[in-house]
Fold each of these.
Amino acid sequence: MTTLLYQTDSYLKKFSAKVIKLTANAHAVLRDQTAFYPGGGGQVYDKGIIEFNGNKSILKRAKYSPDGILHILEEGETLPEVGSEITGILDWDRRYKVMRTHTAMHILCGTIFRDYGALVTGGDMEPLKGRMDFEFKNLTKDLVAVIESAINKEVTAARDVNVAIQPREKALKIPDLIRTKINLLPLHIKEIRTIEIVGLDLQADGGTHVNNTSEVGTIHITDYKSKGKINKRLYIELEP
Ligand SMILES: [Zn+2]
């Protein structure tokens, strides 16, 4: 399995790794460790480049596989040899925007749970924009404005965002940890990573976040939609 460097240091922009396997048909490389996020839990995958022996190959995306994280190169890019050392360099501009967006989503999720007890039923995010579905009966324009003001208060409160990795049994005893209705925690996972926005939100999460809510910047709720009697969808955008 690949060591996931982004799980303990989401600000890692450049790293070294050893190539342990090539997957020719996918034009992909497996390494012993990576800082590239493979996508999942609603967070989009990372892009970047890998350098080796004077080559610069463009990484189309990182992707999860049962053997580890696949690093799929763009067509025509040179693959490194098995056993060679490579340097991975993230498309940091893109990743940092995704980190800000992911933390914004947790601010939204935490605020709505605190103020209305509403559960998340789904979500998706891209750099600087995202959408999140909640179990919410009556969502009005006025209420959306109240929510928008409440989440921006959490941004200006400059709350720290802490990452922890703990045994599954211990983590599952934390009240309200698993607040999404979709199961994001496959049974084979023995350790659970948690993201805490101090004083606001604590949840199991595998994604990358900023260190403090102040880094998110102003959050705009750009639209809302009814997705059925109970489910409502909120769309957010961040300022560049
Ligand atoms: Zn998350």
Amino acid sequence: MAETATSFLTGFIEDLPDAPASDLEELTEASAAFREQVPETGTPFERIVHQVARAAGKGFTTAGPGYLAYIPGGGLWAAAVADFIATGINKYVGVWNAAPVLAQIEATAIRWLSDLFGYPAEARGILTSGGSMSNFSAIVAARRARLPEGFLDGTVYVTDQVHASVTKSAVLAGFPERAMRVVPRDAAMRMQPEALRHMVRADRGAGASPFLVVASAGTTNTGAVDPLANIADVASEEDLWLHVDGAYGGLFQLTERAHRAFAGIERADSIAVDPHKTMFLPYGTGALLVRDGTRLREAHSVHADYLQDLAEEEEIPNFTDYSPELSRDFRGLRLWLPIKLHGLQAFREALDEKLDLARFLFEELTESDRFELPWEPELSVVAFSYRSHAGDQNQFNRKLLERINASKRVFLSSTMIDGRFVIRACIVSHRTHRDRIEEAAEIIKKAAADLDT
Ligand SMILES: *Cc1c(COP(=O)(O)O)cnc(C)c1O
């Protein structure tokens, strides 16, 4: 079975550069083939893999070099192999003494991430299924640390560029939607720290309990980085928990350029990063880091009689006491093994390359005076629209996106900014290189010229 699966996967990955960037045809038929009664008897493995292979070709080719939509994922082969080993040995790492050395591996991988951000020894973290869950646990930790049990007066400060998972997390954590307070931002889409300070004071004067500010280290829309050091100043003066949502951009910290842009991030109370975005790992790998680890534990640990035989935490954390989860997969190997195999330098260089590629695409499009790119890429998102000679601009750009994606060589997505339809290319995948971005620039320019007649 392993050999058959490996041979399918090798072929799949080798074909990625030539595979269509999306295949959205005959989806109903393709899905209908899988709408069947539960089988009483088995099917030969080869046939099953064949079926799965056909299914895998449908939809967006998220693992391919042309996928520039939303925030691309990765899919390092080494991580897939790590998962194969981890699920094969099926050891449990949620409490340390069940698999002390493997739990140490996971703790070490988390420590490596914490070191990236200059976090102290008492920092703790968890590997989550992604940024949404990291943001959720961060908000729960902040709530527990800063508010009384009756917390409904608590208010959270964000900009309108914050990721929707932050609002969703606040709602899941029990806050009414009115708890979300939207701080003005500047033309570069960054939070205005002085406006934050004024809002916090006014809200407090009106009887609310400001307790949390969520800054973005790379917004999803444009990759804007909030002024973290200034926000950290306000947070410490006003006694707010500072959470940095770095689910998209946080791991660019590995590059010198982003490291400079992120100055002050080490003062955040918590940081969410997504190795399944900016470390090229498969979907399902997020991380939450908390500077004072006891805060994370206080928010997530409860006593259970049937767990009384388990050892108290010593050097190695009982991860379940820091997370909503008890049983789960051994995510640590998926993060640790690729870093061991390739070394951190390989990730640094790959991320630097993505920053260069974004800059290159930005410059290519800027050359034409009909493309509008008001946001210089701080990280690896290039957001643009085209000013057509006539007609509804939003409608034109919607059509332009369709035409770009019809090339099947690249796949982009869009967003709305201040009422404008904006197309975005997000360059993150380890399989995306200069050749594909040159091609993307050509495709985009030609599609716009063809359409604007
Ligand atoms: C992707 C993203 C999230 C959500 O992370 P998931 O891993 O998709 O759950 C949160 N914040 C930002 C800025 C993101 O880009």
